[in-house]
Design goal:
By secondary structure, this protein is an alpha+beta fold. The protein has four helices and seven strands.
Length: 109
């Protein structure tokens, strides 16, 4: 979960992030704005999607909680726009616990 220590990026809005719907919905998270911008403009322009950045622990917690409330259990990290399902998968709830432990300064190092 070290990728959560720095800024994270996603496409869309807090209440409606870009998802992949091939079975259970999968959220897309990125470790850089450049990677997020690699998604084809056809996808992002049709949905009027912009790259959103989250830097602080509180913002990350709110984003992950929003994913849980939407029933999203898994996110893909830095997916390739041509083969997104090959990206590393991470559990949203585990990420939320990680973020909350840092926010409360109870993380085990």
């Amino acid at each position: 979960m070290v990728h959560l220590d720095g800024p994270i990026y996603y496409l869309g809005a807090l209440e409606r992030p870009l998802l992949i719907q091939t079975g259970p919905p999968l959220a897309l998270l990125f470790t850089s704005c450049d990677i997020a911008r690699q998604f084809p403009s056809v996808v992002t322009d049709l949905g009027n999607l912009e790259v959103q950045q989250i830097q602080d622990w509180r913002g990350k917690e709110e984003f992950l909680k929003a994913l849980v409330l939407q029933g999203i259990e898994i996110y893909l990290l830095d997916p390739n726009p041509h083969q997104p399902l090959r990206a590393a998968r991470h559990a949203v709830r585990a990420a939320l616990i990680y973020v909350q432990s840092h926010k409360k300064q109870t993380a085990c190092l």
